[in-house]
Amino acid sequence: MKIGLTYDSRAEYLKEGYSMEETAEFDKESTIEGIELAIRNIGYETERIGNSNSLMRHLLTGRRWDLVFNISEGLYGEGRESLVPALLDSFKIPYVFSGPVTLGISLNKAFAKQIIRDSHLNTPPFSVVTKRADIPLVKLDYPLFVKPISEGTGKGIDARSKINNATELEDVCSSLLPKFNQAVLVEEYLPGREFTVGVLKTGDDAYVPGAMEIVYKNSSNNIYSYENKENYEEIVDYTSVEGDLLKECEELALKVWKALNCFDGGRVDMKIDKSGKMSFIEVNPLAGLNPETSDLPILCRLNNMDYQKIIEEILDSAIKRNFTHD
Hints:
single chain, alpha+beta, Rossmann fold, Dna Ligase, domain 1, D-amino Acid Aminotransferase, Chain A, domain 1, 3 domains, 12 helices, globular, Dala_Dala_lig_C, ligase, ATP-grasp domain-containing protein
């Protein structure tokens, strides 16, 4: 089987003049090499395709693959993560991870929360601010938490994201709206412990390989921000979750995974709310896969699953979805 690799090389974007923050979600060479090696260890041939522009050029010249391993995040717009799977769908080429609808809905955190809320799963009350005139219309209980509605890797999140009064809400929303050129998600703040939970495989086969708690060191602002994620080794401790707490994480993560029709592998982020219940924050169906520094490989490693096994499980799920017709 020939497996193509779609990705966004961070080094290539940096050479073109994009900033470190703009390219925060993009892939290091070690990520691409790690996936290649793991796929070849299984016995499959690999071919690098690159980003969505490169994929389009290849498709128009007639290049094809049996399957594409897609980790391309895209650069602009709420459909940026959906572009590669939508192109592959149009050429009837199977691929790894979720389809364009799930990736688009999951990237817009308010859309995802609406589905989760309508699935009767716990998530904090929220509002969406699309312009400054919306800010006084927010009727939620303080403290609040605000972030750009469609960013990842903690972009737009810092110590000011926790909001204690109307003045802070006005100041922070007025700053985020023009900076990120997108709506702002405003949620009631979740004061409890924070977890990220891995999910592998699809549908009834989906399972949780492990979960980890995000424990902030003394110097941290207790917010999983872009800066804290970039410097996690100095700022954050990750600890494996066990016992009844793991069961709570598993139950919510798997229900979220199915409600949003996620495929093959990813992560679900959650915190404990003020009443002590586990509460959904967001889902990442296109989770980072750097062997050393990405959350999904880290939490799997904490739970005795190595990187090779993660890639095998993801590929096994995609091959079963696309090539098995029971």
